[in-house]
Design brief:
Structural class: alpha+beta
Strand order of the largest sheet: 6-5-9-3-2-12-15-14
Helix content: 40-55%
Shape: globular
Bound molecules: arginine, zinc ion
Largest sheet: 8 strands, mixed
Number of strands: 32
Oligomer: single chain
Distance between the termini: 34 Å
Number of helices: 28
Length: 866
């Protein structure tokens, strides 16, 4: 009976930020010995442990899914009653203040479907330890504030695993009997165990070199399957550019003699910054014109940079506990965003980043899973690798950088790195360094770390012709979020300019600080009412409402010298028309058509910017503007406006599409911009309903010398019902079925399609022979994409909800972390009418009723119902 009860999962434990206590024991040195085999790997760990402070608490080593086959202390094997397990952890009472503790465990990498710890992927053995995967490899105090020096020995079959890699520097290697071999790697930098990594496999290397600013030579290696080696050059160039950029912009130099990157096919996330041995989802390493779009190329560049930058923001200075996750992630996203902007266009990169923030983070911040950038509690930390921690976290750093200015911000980061090098720090430490290094008071600004939810700012301009003065009244409200009802006003930096409608100019951009609930700013000597340009460059991650007319927005869309504000004026113009129509008003599209015409005929504009500026807001973004989302009305209104813009400007679309054709593949900004604009023109041309639209799309699909144009044409066709749709999908499948990353695009394009049968199609695709729950990229391509397709997913029948819930339930048994990431779309039920809302809740309840549900999915589904 006792046994039966103990098989029930214990009530999930909630971890709280304020419960943080320094560790009882430290682990200055670790020696690991791996006897590697996909079916059964033996891990022997020797930990030097030292008592931290004056206490008599036992040593507690976390463990998950492992049992000790042997435990020794100072070389003496312990008897069974000298240790015990408590919730997976190994507890040993130790008499003195320093000991050597040795454990032996066995595990099965190929049986590890969670892809956390040591697992097998495509014939390789690799690890993923962040956040709490190391405890699945060996018994260890698995928390980021314990920094240890690692020495790692691996042995394996030499034919199957000729390459053996770990963190740090290679020390020695040799052959053994029975076709086996071994290698030893030492990492001289103390690190938390979440940065541990090893890889064993039959890998080819793209090898290169980088000379650091102090003249040290670093050996660079990108390791992939032999067949993929030709697809690694872009990643290598990105790595070298990142290393040079971090020296130039932050004064940060690389610190080891080798830097290796390995690409693996099965990976829960984008990539991982393990010290000296980054492990990547292959989709962020491999790229060639035949299979990668320009977005993919940019993704490779951005993620390679992101992981490289972690060497300082994350590894040299790490996090004290997981509540501080944004300390490394927000800062590192900010760094990779600025790097990518420097490599390409600042204007376009900012627009793209804001689009991502609004699509992912604003939605999160207004729903049941909203949490502060520095959360107060969690059940499963993997659920907190969110858009809020990453993208809103980056916006917080960006606001501080803006308020300080470039020089003082650099003084702040220098102080931060110098002061905390080799330490596990907190978000508060970062803010303190900004205050001291930059000479600024951030007392009120700290609320950005504490209060969840997106601030709403209302901006009202009034003009008095008699006194020739302008009054700008700003007020802010903070919406309630789970667990936070009453909120204080935030410190919101708003870059602002007032345009003179006659001259089309302004008198300079000012940084206004909104710090109170309501505040007024007065400007003098304005004979005529000016037009307000506010939150320029998206200086703060807030929602701004203004009393600007469609004519004001049209003016800004033509004249604003801040590219983001110009884009924003276009978006707002379109949103106003669409939201009006969805509400049943007969709004005129003439302003929108004129504004689009203006943009596409302005010869001075960068084509990549043009493509962004004329893009209609997504259906999901329109949904976010409404209290109750009506997916069918949104789709119909957006589709109609697209058709009108398409038809009204048809000759322009034809002209742009034809003139951007002769563009032999290159990754120059000009070539990329031309492709982006060409795809936008094709999209409007097909949307116009022109008879030859599908044929033109099919020709682009067939003739393209690159994936950017081919996939865009496929996507455009997939939205329609032409015979070309089926033909192109078949051709694409047959051409790429053997290449997993490209086949993902085939699944994704269909799941994203704005087509009435998408929900049925996704059901069929989930039974396709090439669909598998074992590969996270494939799951995200089909179900992640589908859940982001508002019109398809929110099919009135509830079929979409059932499909997603079925997937979550099945996947949870294999890979809870990836399953839990699919839950949030079901949690938007409060934003839908009662019919859909009830269907969504029913699926969440069905998920929660499953026995043996992971704590990952339990937390997400449970919170989503509240
Ligand atoms: N630190 C990694 C990155 O952002 C992500 C690791 C994600 N791990 C996880 N268990 N969710 O670069
Ligand atoms: Zn990161």
């Amino acid at each position: 009976m006792a046994d039966m009860i103990s098989t029930h999962a214990a009530a999930p434990v909630i971890i709280r930020r304020l419960d943080y206590r320094p560790p009882d024991w430290l682990v200055p040195d670790v020696t690991l010995d791996f006897d590697l085999d996909p079916a059964l790997t033996k891990v022997r760990a020797t930990l030097s442990v030292t008592r931290n402070g004056d206490h008599d608490r036992p040593l507690r080593l976390d463990g998950e899914g492992i049992v000790p086959l042997a435990v020794c202390v100072d070389g003496r094997p312990l008897a069974q009653d000298e240790w015990h397990l408590e919730a997976g952890a190994l507890i040993i009472a130790l008499p003195d203040s320093a000991h050597s503790v040795e454990t032996l465990v066995e595990l099965s990498p190929e049986g590890n479907s969670k892809l956390m710890g040591l697992y097998a992927s495509g014939g390789l053995l690799c690890t993923q330890c962040e956040a709490e995967g190391f405890r699945r490899i060996t018994f260890f105090p698995d928390r980021p504030d314990i920094l240890s020096r690692y020495s790692v020995r691996m042995e394996a079959d030499k034919a199957r695993f000729p390459i053996l890699l770990a963190n740090g520097d290679p020390i020695e290697q040799g052959d053994l009997t029975g076709g086996r071999h071994w290698a030893r790697w030492n990492d001289p930098f103390p690190k938390p165990c979440y940065l541990f990594a090893l890889v064993a496999g039959d890998l080819a290397c793209n090898a290169d070199r980088f000379v650091t600013m102090s003249g040290r030579e670093v050996a660079l290696g990108i390791w992939v399957r032999e067949a993929d080696i030709a697809r690694t050059d872009h990643a290598m160039q990105a790595l070298k550019n990142s290393m040079a950029w971090d020296e130039r912009v932050y004064g940060r130099e690389y610190d080891l003699d080798v830097f290796n990157i390995v690409a693996v096919a099965d990976f829960n996330f984008g990539a991982m910054e393990n010290k000296g041995l980054n492990i990547f989802n292959s989709r962020y390493i491999l790229a060639d014109p035949e299979t990668a779009t320009d977005i993919d190329y940019d993704g490779v560049e951005g993620v390679v940079a992101h992981e490289y930058f972690h060497n300082w923001s994350g590894n040299r200075v790490t996090c004290r506990d997981w509540f501080q996750l944004s300390l490394k992630e927000g800062f590192t996203v900010f760094r990779d965003q600025n790097f990518s902007a420097d490599m390409g266009s600042h204007a376009v990169k900012r627009i793209e980043d804001v689009r991502i923030l609004r699509a992912g983070q604003f939605q999160e911040d207004s729903g049941p899973l909203a949490h502060p950038v520095r959360p107060e509690s969690y059940m499963e930390i993997s659920n907190f690798y969110t858009a809020t921690i990453y993208n809103k976290g980056a916006e917080l750093i960006r606001m501080m950088a803006l308020m300080l200015g470039a020089e003082r911000f650099r003084a702040g980061t220098d102080l931060y790195f110098d002061r905390h090098d080799g330490e596990a720090a907190t978000c508060e430490d970062f803010v303190l360094a900004m205050e001291e290094g930059g000479g600024i008071d951030l007392t009120q600004f700290r609320l950005w770390y504490e209060q969840a939810g997106t601030p709403h700012v209302r901006a009202l301009v009034t003009h008095d012709p008699v006194s020739q003065s302008v009054e700008l009244t700003l007020d802010q409200t903070m919406p309630p979020t789970p667990g936070q009802v009453d909120k204080q006003p935030m410190a919101i930096p708003l870059r602002t300019a007032l345009f003179d409608p006659a001259s089309g100019e302004h008198r300079g951009d000012e940084l206004l600080m909104l710090t109170e609930g309501r505040q007024s700013f007065t400007f003098t000597s304005f004979p005529a009412a000016p037009i307000l340009s506010i939150n320029r460059g998206f200086s703060a991650p807030v929602i701004v409402e203004t009393n600007r007319s469609q004519a004001d927005l049209a003016f800004l869309s033509a004249h604003d010298d801040d590219p983001f504000a110009r884009y924003e004026a276009m978006q707002q113009l379109m949103v106003n028309v669409l939201v009006g129509r969805i509400a049943g008003h007969a709004t005129d599209d003439a302003d929108v058509v004129d504004a689009v015409r203006n943009i596409i005929t302005d010869p001075l504009l960068d084509p990549a910017f043009v493509a962004e500026a004329i893009r209609l807001p997504s259906e999901a973004y329109l949904g976010d503007q409404m209290r109750l989302v009506d997916p069918d009305a949104i789709h119909a209104a957006r589709d109609a406006l697209q058709q009108q813009i398409g038809a009204a400007l048809e000759p322009f679309w034809r002209d742009i599409h034809a003139r951007t054709k002769a563009n032999a593949f290159s990754l120059s900004p000009a070539a990329k911009g031309a492709r982006k604009l060409r795809n936008a023109a094709l999209h409007y041309l097909v949307a116009s309903g022109a008879q030859d639209g599908p044929a033109i799309a099919f020709a682009q699909f067939s003739e393209a010398d690159n994936m950017t144009e081919r996939q865009a044409a496929l996507g455009t066709l997939a939205n329609g019902a032409s015979p070309e749709r089926e033909a192109a999908l078949d051709i694409f499948y047959n051409r790429y079925a053997a290449d997993a990353l490209t086949l993902d695009k085939w699944f994704q394009t269909q799941a994203f399609a704005l087509h009435p049968d998408t929900v049925e199609l996704v059901a069929q695709l989930s039974e396709h022979k090439d669909f598998t729950l074992a590969n996270p990229n494939r799951v995200r391509s089909l179900f992640g994409a589908f859940a982001g397709n508002q019109w398809g997913f929110h099919h009135k029948s509830g079929k979409g909800y059932r499909l997603l819930a079925d997937c979550i339930i099945a996947l949870d048994r294999l890979n809870p972390q990836t399953a839990a990431k699919l839950v949030p779309p079901l949690g938007r039920w409060k934003r839908f009418e009662e019919g859909r809302a009830a269907l969504m809740r029913a699926e969440l309840q069905r998920i929660l009723a499953q026995s043996g549900l992971s704590k990952d999915v339990t937390e997400q589904a449970g919170k989503s119902l509240e």
